[in-house]
Amino acid sequence: MEIIQFLIDFILHIDKHLEAFVVAYGPWVYALLFIIVFVETGVVVMPFLPGDSLLFITGALCGAGFMSFPLAVAVLLLAAILGDQCNYAIGRTLGPKVFQWEDSRWFNRRAFDQAHAFYERYGGITIILARFMPFIRTFAPFVAGVAHMSRARFSMFNIVGALIWVLGISTAGYFFGNLEWVRNNLEKIIWGLILVPGLLAIFGAWRAGRDGKAKVSAL
C-alpha cells in the first residue's frame, strides 16, 4: 500500500518531486527521466508510470531554468524510441513461444492473422496515437510485436510518434507550464492528461466492438 500511495503522490505531484530531485542531484535528473520513460514504454508490466505529465513538467522546469530543454528533449526522445523498440522486440520474441501450438488453448491462428493484417494496415497510426494514451502506449508496441508487424514499418512510426509526443507535450510545458493559472490548476491538468485519453480509448474500443458485432449480425 505504501508503494501505491507513493506512486499516486508522485504522479499527481510530479512537479514537486522532480524539482526536488533536480535541486538534490543536479544532472542525474536526465538519467531519471530516461529510466521512467524507457520503463513505461518498454516494459509491458509498467504502464502506470507517468508519461504525459512527466513530459509537461519537464518542459515547465526547463522553461524555469532548472534543466536544459534541448538535452532533456534528446534524452526523452531516446528513451521513448528505445522503449517502444524494446517492447516490440519482447512481443515479437515471446509471441511465437507462447503461441507455439496451432489453434491451442493459447493460440488461434485466425485471430493472429487478423491482428497481423490489422497492424500491417493500421499499425502506423495506431502506434502514433497510442503515444498519447496512458496504458495503451505501453501495450501497443508489444501487440505490434506479437502480431509480427514488419520491423521497418514499426520503427518508422515509432520514431514519428516519439517526435510528436515528446516535442509536442514538452514544448507545451516549456511555454505554458509556468503560467500562474497552470501552476494553480496543475493537479487538475495532470488528471486530465491521465483520464481524457483513457476515456477516449475506452470509447473507441467500445465503439469498435459494437461495430464488429453489428457486422457479424448482418452476415
Task: Give the helices and strands, then pairings.
Elements (H helix, E strand, L loop, with lengths): L1 H11 L1 H12 L2 H15 L9 H12 L5 H30 L10 H22 L5 H11 L4 H26 L3 H5 L1 H33 L1
Helix pairs in contact: 2-4, 3-5, 4-5, 4-8, 5-7, 5-8, 6-7, 6-8
Subcellular location: Cell membrane
Organism: Comamonas terrae
Keywords: Cell membrane, Membrane, Transmembrane, Transmembrane helix
3D architecture notes:
- With 219 residues, this protein is an all-alpha fold.
- It has one domain (2-218).
- It is 81% helix and 0% strand.
- It contains ten helices and no strands.
- It has helices spanning 2-12, 14-25, 28-42, 52-63, 69-98, 109-130, 136-146, 151-176, 180-184, 186-218.
- It is elongated, with a radius of gyration of 19 Å.
- Keywords: Cell membrane, Membrane, Transmembrane, Transmembrane helix.
Ends distance: 50 Å
**How many strands?**
0
Total helical segments: 10
Number of domain modules: 1
Averaging pLDDT over every residue, what do you get? 78
- Tell me the overall shape: elongated
Low-confidence stretches: none
Q: SSE order, as H and E?
A: HHHHHHHHHH
Supply Rg: 19 Å
Membrane topology: Multi-pass membrane protein
Subcellular location: Cell membrane
Transmembrane segments: 28-49, 56-82, 122-144, 156-177, 189-206
Protein name: DedA family protein
